[in-house]
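ok new one. same drill as before - structure tokens go in, u give me an amino acid for every spot. 473 of them this time. try not to just spam alanines like last time pls lmao
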């Protein structure tokens, strides 16, 4: 058993100060500065003693002592400077026993706890504000650019770990979670202003998953999402990655009841069909009401009529009313908006009907994504005058995602140093695989293209849709 110990000694300090004009705050600040100075000296002495102990205990003949090298390190107490012994092995490769013993990464210049504090503050305030906050908390600070680079560096490891984790899920090499009775998924997108891109925008997509709602406190009506997780990303592969994350968190493949809420955008509806085939898609009522208010702003009474028709699943009557408004608009601008509303409701007919069915069955429907968009993005990324680089925005978003998922402490303690073994990548099935004739065929397999084709709003399609809903015993 290793019984080696090291003594860390704190020196006695005596400070004489004049009582005149001495205040409580001045005394507090003076003692704080003194303790930080002492801490830095003790830290340097302890590290030097550990290095000397390792030098004396090393196996002779394996490593050659090539002298001392200075190293500067930023800690929670401030900057420290110490000397460490550099060694060379028989092959000529240099190493530092002190770094290996204390788990110091090559070229590391800041302590883990200090980087953790700065990154956490950066998710809630601008980098310049973090400088002020760090000075108030720690008594010293770095430049805002140094903080930004630290966040980007940490996020690079987070993103790489996420890619490897998602690949292990693709390979079906992950611990399965207990399947809940009901799973809720929601997705939405917002835009961030890009730097030096002629006012171009970066589309940021956010997905949340949870298993229901539970009381926040023992008393009162406040509720929170149960077993919630957040996923943030960009680009066309978002829904695929979101489905993998949801499978690992909620075991969707074993969950019978899945509800997916969205605002009706094409990337959401098509993504649900491709990656969440067993989910019931519902149109988010917040976005539906918002569309109605914006389009029918000059038709207050008609707005209520349309909403009641939609909530009663009388989609055809609602569309007929809107069609009447299109034929008799106030002006061309309103006509264009009404045409867009008509198209929007037609495309999201299924989502509205599903929403109504859930309300009738008194099943909680999705409807938490908008508040999560504000929590994740708007409160930090969309302040007036802010613009972002793609790399900088995604880096900070991934840091915030880790915090929101309750994985912040775990990441810094263990996960950031773990290597995720992906294993051989399992390629998807080729197109020729699906062209093979199966040994057995279903009794009847048919689709009705009219439901989603150009004739989906015709009266005869409405009749087919009703016939399709008839249940036979």
């Amino acid at each position: 058993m290793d019984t080696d110990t090291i003594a860390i000694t704190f020196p006695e300090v005596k400070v004489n100060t004049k009582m005149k004009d001495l205040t409580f705050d001045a005394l507090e600040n003076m003692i704080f500065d003194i303790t930080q100075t002492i801490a830095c000296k003790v830290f340097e002495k302890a590290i030097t003693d550990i290095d000397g102990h390792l030098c004396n205990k090393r196996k002779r003949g394996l490593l050659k002592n090539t002298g001392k090298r200075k190293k500067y390190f930023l800690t929670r107490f401030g900057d420290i400077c110490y000397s460490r012994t550099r060694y060379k092995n028989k092959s000529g490769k240099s190493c530092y026993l002190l770094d290996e013993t204390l788990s110091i990464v090559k070229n590391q210049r800041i302590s883990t706890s200090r980087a953790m504090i700065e990154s956490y503050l950066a998710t809630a305030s601008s980098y310049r504000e973090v400088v002020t906050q760090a000075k108030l908390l720690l008594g010293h600070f770095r430049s805002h650019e140094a903080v930004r680079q630290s966040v980007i560096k940490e996020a690079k490891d987070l993103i790489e770990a996420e890619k490897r984790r998602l690949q292990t899920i693709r390979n079906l090499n992950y611990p399965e979670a207990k399947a809940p009775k009901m799973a809720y998924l929601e997705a939405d997108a917002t835009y961030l202003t890009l730097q030096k891109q002629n006012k171009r925008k970066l589309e940021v997509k956010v997905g949340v998953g949870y298993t229901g709602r539970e009381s926040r406190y023992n008393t009162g009506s406040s509720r929170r999402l149960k077993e919630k997780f957040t996923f943030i990303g960009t680009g066309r592969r978002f829904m695929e990655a979101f489905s993998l994350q949801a499978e690992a968190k909620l075991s969707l493949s074993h969950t019978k009841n899945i509800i997916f809420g969205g605002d009706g955008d094409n990337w959401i509806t098509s993504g649900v069909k491709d990656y969440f085939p067993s989910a019931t898609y519902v149109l988010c009522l917040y976005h539906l009401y918002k569309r109605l208010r914006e389009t029918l702003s000059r038709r207050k009474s008609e707005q209520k009529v349309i909403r009641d028709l939609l909530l009663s699943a009388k989609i055809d009557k609602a569309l007929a009313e809107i069609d009447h408004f299109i034929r008799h608009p106030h002006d061309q601008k309103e006509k264009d908006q009404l045409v867009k509303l008509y198209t929007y409701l037609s495309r999201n007919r299924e989502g509205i009907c599903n929403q109504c069915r859930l309300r009738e069955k008194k099943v909680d429907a999705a409807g938490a994504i908008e508040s999560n968009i504000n929590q994740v993005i708007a409160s930090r990324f969309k302040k007036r005058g802010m613009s972002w680089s793609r790399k900088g925005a995604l880096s900070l978003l991934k840091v915030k995602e880790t915090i929101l998922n309750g994985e912040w402490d775990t990441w810094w303690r263990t996960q950031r140093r773990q290597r995720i073994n992906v294993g051989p990548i399992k390629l998807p099935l080729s197109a020729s695989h699906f062209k093979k004739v199966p040994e057995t065929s279903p009794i009847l397999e048919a689709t009705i293209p009219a439901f989603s084709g150009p004739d989906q709003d015709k009266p005869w399609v409405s009749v087919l849709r009703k016939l399709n809903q008839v249940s036979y015993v």
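DSSP finds 17 helices and ten strands in the chain. and btw Residues 24-109 form one domain.
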